[in-house]
Amino acid sequence: MKVAKWRPYLLITPAIIVFLVFFIQPIFYMIYLSFHDWNFISPDKTFVGLENFKALLSDPMFLQVIRNTLMYTFFTVLFSISIALLMSIWLNRRGWMYSFVQGAVFSPHIISLVSIAMLWMWIMDADYGLLNWILSLVGMDKVPWLTDPNTALASLIIIAVWKNIGYYTLIIIAGLQSIPKHLYEAAALDQTSSFRRFTKITFPMLSPSIFFLTIIGILDSIKVFETISIITKGGPLNSTNTLVYYIYENGFIFFKIGYASAAGVILLVILSIVTLIYFKVLGKRVHYQ
Amino acid sequence: MAKIQLKNVSKVYGNNKVMDDMNLEIQDGSFTVLVGPSGCGKSTTLRLIAGLEEVTSGEIWIGNHLVNEVAPGKRGISMVFQNYALYPTMTVQGNIEFGLENMKIPKAERKKMVDEIVEIVDLTEYLDKKPQNLSGGQRQRVALARAMVKKPNVFIFDEPLSNLDAKLRGQMRTELIQLHKRLGTTFIYVTHDQVEAMSMGDEIVILNKGHIMQQAAPMEVYHNPANQFVAQFIGTPAMNVISIAMLEGKLGKIIDERIFYIGFRPEHVEIQTAEETTSGIHLPCELLTIETLGSETLYLVNSDAGQFQVKSFNNPLMNTEKIHVTIPFDKLYYFDTQGNRVYVDELPFESMGKEVRGEVLI
Amino acid sequence: MKTSLPIKILNVIGLIVVVIIFAMPFIWMISTSLKTLGETMIFPPKWLPDELIWENFMEAWNSGPFLQYFINSVIVSVGILMLQFITVIPAAYAFARYEFRCKNILFGLVMVTMMIPAQLIFLPVFLNLSEWRLLDTLWGLILPFATSAFGIFMLRQTFKQVPEELLEAARLDNSSEFKIMMKMMVPMAKPTLITLGLFNFITHWNDYFWPLVMTTTERARTLPVGIAQLRQVDGGVAWNILMAGNVILVIPILITFFFAQRQIIRAFTYTGVK
Asked: The ABC transporter domain covers which part of the protein (chain B) (predicted)?
């Protein structure tokens, strides 16, 4: 078929321009800024080489930010996946009851993080919150969920897991439903115990879904911002300050553009590594079919 | 008016040359069937004529126009696809009308043309249905109507019957032949099924590996194949071809040195039932398998010359293990080492004298 | 296999507990939004207010230029939606149906962009927008999302599944390439487009991060940013007013979810892996 040579380029041009202007150029601009000192107001950007990175890595606050981010990411992903795995095996059934429960579990995923943050702020309120009331029912003391440095990060993880579970569960259910029935039939003929059926068939066949969720979970958790910005503002005592919020603070509140950009470059490196692993493994395929 | 010519056409996909220097002429008003095994280049030929692919080199002429640079929609061609390729989001009416719409034909006129066509293919009551809600046969008719409504100079069919069940296929075959008679337009029809080719075409083009093996009328192809490939491709079961070396002792001295293979059709082999026999090659055979097909019976036999098939219209020979067969001399085909036909005026070997066998097994 | 009755009952109780865990917060939100301020400061908490205080919604709505926020939200969500269709459909079609030089590199660019979150590039984009005088405008909220790598990826998969024969039939019917794209491919991709539309609309309706960092005054702020500011009104937090504001934000989404649950779930759980 004869197609004018320029036609496909014409079709993709609008999209490509948007990508270049709003995604690709900013990445390079950020890398450029990370080697400079600039306060946004002065016309001059001073080249400082690696000074921003040196300052970052010797700043105990930044190191704590990194630690917070990694802890938050690790536990959010771990709990989300483990709980979702159990839930999906339980909820993977037909019938209106199950589809209703699946819908209910999924609903937090489509609600604005603003509402989720404020709702949980209220539920976790130390004096009048619902959560402490439930604890009081079983005879426990009130917990200052969001105002104590020891529990604030954990509280944010609980909120994230609550929001994530529905999404994770539905992805795993889709994975479960794609496992061919004849595998289980063969296993039944071989008199396989239900435990071995899970470890030898279900889990390996689910590994692509679980791998996908791990990557998505990491990419999603590492850029956490909304709940922190609305609920804790990084506090108390910096205990919930994470990477994106730190970049925001330094860039938008302290106007340390170069410094914030350097932190951005570190985020870029982390994201690139995770993405690279994703595509590498995807190339090899975590697949058993 | 709409004679189609391919002049020195080659087609290369990457490093794969699927068609090499092909010359083909399709007469105006003919029903030409392109037939061959898969990968023979028949579909490529079709797509080149339709303009869905570009030639790598060579020229394609439709009527008096060189169409190499003409867009498919402007070649005056209609095509019926193997899977019908009906537009799933449009109704039957929309499907049939789509091409007319693109030709900027006014609405009133369009309506008249569509009505006329659906009348012919008997789809009037289905105009507002979507293709998904039609049966296979009805979809086939929509595809036909869509092709016909444009009043093209050439119809192209790409294995259009292969998705239908056997009964419907037979019926559609007849209808297409009648349609061709009525319209008198050039039909080009691609199939891998030689029965379809024989029964429908008034001209058959047999292709193999991007080359034309033979182009002729169906009976000519059957009676007078140009080479071993055609001989074995046309006819069921295929022609038996035996290396001449296997027949040593059964024939006299071979005079014509070009001959390497001897071929004969299963239906020409005579099973010996009486003392007197036709003059031909006599072979004692062992019966290996019998396939009874009702009106005819197929035997696979083994002889000194190797295994071959025999087709007989007599009652099947049950409980028989050994038979004698005669292959009449006048039904023999000769091929050279390349498989090309060797034409002879008289027997290319010395006769061993008329030997009549006394032994009759049946 | 038959399950015994006690296990069945246990199962149903378990399901109810799960629904409570995930739905209760929303019910709590609605209940709080109808209480008096005094009723929110009681421990143990009251489940239902004595009297339904509908005025809370008016108070929340009137505590800022919420009509402006609402209109901004609609313009931004709808604007992004429309621009994305304009840019995504042709690009997806080109990547699905044409061969051209550098196609793989360009598609690689799309895939890379899909992995770049707004949270990574907001600072340099902010600086750019301020340079181009687009800061604090609706354009600054719309243009960066005028196309979607995810959308191109998803729609390309759909377009690729359309049999080539259909396009060939259309070409033989003398159809222009543009008409093939708009009259044949787009109608066939309708389910995907609905999915994409829902995904985009909900995502950008909910978005808080981008409007927060790209606006400095209430001129271009959207509903989520406005709602988030409710908590800074007085000294103490008026939970009833705050929750009323959030109900305004959440209800449209929950209603959409109720009616289009299947499509929304399909939209948000699309992984591209079949």
From this structure: 4-234
